[in-house]
Amino acid sequence: RETLVAPDTICVALESPNCTEELTLVDLPGLVQFQHNQDSALLSQVEQVVMEYVQNPRSILLPIVAAPSNIHNSKVLQWALEFDPKSTRTIPVLTKPDLIDPDSESEVLKLLQESQFRHGFYMVKNRGQALLDAGRSIEDGLKEEMEYFSYTLPWTAITDPRLGIPNVRTKLANVLWQVMQNSLGEIIQEVKQQLDTAQGKIDAMSTMYNTRSKQRIFYHNLSQAMVEHVKMDLSG
Asked: CB–CB of 30/43 below 8 Å?
């Protein structure tokens, strides 16, 4: 059967003198809720790829959910609570606040103020298609986002730093540091086990002949031993 979703990754490396943290971001495919004229295996293939990262205790989860959608039925949020029940490594992020129906804004506002997730919900407003088509920069988008949250009701009621990409970036850096600290002991133990395994394989190789003279003597003795065996076989 044809594979519609490949587990392979396309890596893009970004380097800058201003980067003080080493961070790998993995953009996973969105969970499919409905397949229209698609192979029925698509859903399970997407879930297998996503699940590989969700179950990893060293992965930080940033479930991205459109604010206008039915957030309570979000499968990715359900998985986050299932595999990270203490939500120590989950930072849920809401998007598209400008598309929320006015009657639903109070519900989203409540999510930002009270949440079952330890780190709470964050909300961002990315550059719209009009800004992208106009070639506006990321800096322009950040400025427009800041102005939107500063002057648009009801988001002006949020006093905690939960709005905007810079606040998500700060929270992500803090959670990354905490996850690294919590995982350090386990990582050191795994490295020691791998070193022990490698050393065991080296020891199983017997004597190491790491110079030309030692190698020459070894092969000379080996060839002489083979000659003696052949002589014995020929003599009966």
From this structure: no
What are the tokens at 133? 């088509």
User: What are the φ and ψ backbone dihedral angles of 148, each rounded to 5 degrees?
Assistant: -60, -50
Instruction: State the Cα angle at 26 between 20 and 27, rounded to 5°.
Output: 125
Residue 141 tokens read as: 């988008």
Q: Which amino acid is at 155?
A: W
- Nearest partner of 152 among 144, 161, 160, judged by Cα: 144
Residue 5 neighbours by CB under 8 Å, 6+ apart: 29, 42, 45, 46, 49
Q: Residue 226 corresponds to which tokens in the numbers above?
A: 């083979």
Nearest to 64 by CA among 140, 143, 168: 168
What is the residue type of 43? L
Give me the phi and psi of 94, to 5 degrees please.
Answer: -95, 145
110-152: per-residue pLDDT in tens? 888 888 888 889 999 888 777 788 888 888 888 888 988 888 8
Packing angle of the helix pair 75-83, 42-54 (nearest 10 deg):
40
Exposure on the CB side of residue 124, measured as CA atoms within 13 A:
17
Residue 55 pLDDT greater than 60, yes or no: yes
**Burial zone of 193 (CB within 10 Å; 0-12 exposed, 13-18 middle, 19+ buried):** exposed
Asked if the peptide bond before residue 102 counts as cis, ω within 30 degrees of 0, the response is no
**Beta-carbon neighbour count of residue 112 at 10 Å?**
21
